[in-house]
């Protein structure tokens, strides 16, 4: 990080020759993070929001999980961890279900692809002869092939 071999100048000395590593991170959070290097645990200081702590951990490449973060506001921590789970779930759905449909559409020469994602509770009356209107006649005809793709998935 501080060596001369870094071409991208990740860190630069200021006018005093000091390196500023934690730009934008409050001293309270930085102190808690320094304790992490001693104990392996970050104790979230009072008055610091979990998203703010999360952002600092991401910036400093520190794993943000239940074993490294301890805080009094357990609901905020669970909310942040739940967001992680939701992001991973979305990435999984995107890679396994949506991306293959988009790739198939692109490989057939299409420049547009309309994908409709429904939850298990959604009820839509779709008919292969009369798909829902997308605003353009061309899109309506492509909706049938997408509907067929959804049926086969």
From TrEMBL:
It is found in: Cytoplasm. Its main location: cytoplasm. InterPro entries: BTBD10/KCTD20, BTBD10/KCTD20_BTB/POZ, SKP1/BTB/POZ_sf. Pfam families: BTB_3 (PF16017). Gene3D superfamilies: Potassium Channel Kv1.1, Chain A. Residues 1-78 form the BTBD10/KCTD20 BTB/POZ domain. Keywords: Cytoplasm. This is BTB/POZ domain-containing protein 10. The gene is BTBD10_1.
């Amino acid at each position: 990080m501080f060596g001369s071999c870094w071409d991208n100048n990740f860190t630069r000395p200021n006018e005093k020759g000091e390196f500023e590593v934690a730009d934008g991170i409050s001293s309270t959070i930085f102190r808690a993070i320094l304790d992490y290097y001693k104990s392996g645990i970050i104790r979230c200081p009072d008055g610091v929001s979990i998203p703010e702590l999360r952002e600092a951990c991401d910036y400093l490449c520190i794993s943000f999980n239940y074993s490294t973060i301890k805080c009094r506001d357990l609901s905020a921590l669970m909310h942040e961890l739940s967001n992680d789970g939701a992001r991973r779930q979305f990435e999984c759905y995107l890679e396994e279900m949506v991306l293959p449909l988009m790739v198939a559409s692109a490989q057939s020469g299409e420049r547009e692809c309309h994908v409709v994602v429904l939850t298990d509770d959604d009820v839509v009356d779709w008919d292969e002869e009369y798909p829902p209107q997308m605003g353009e006649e061309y899109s309506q005809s492509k909706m049938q092939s997408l509907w067929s793709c959804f049926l086969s998935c």
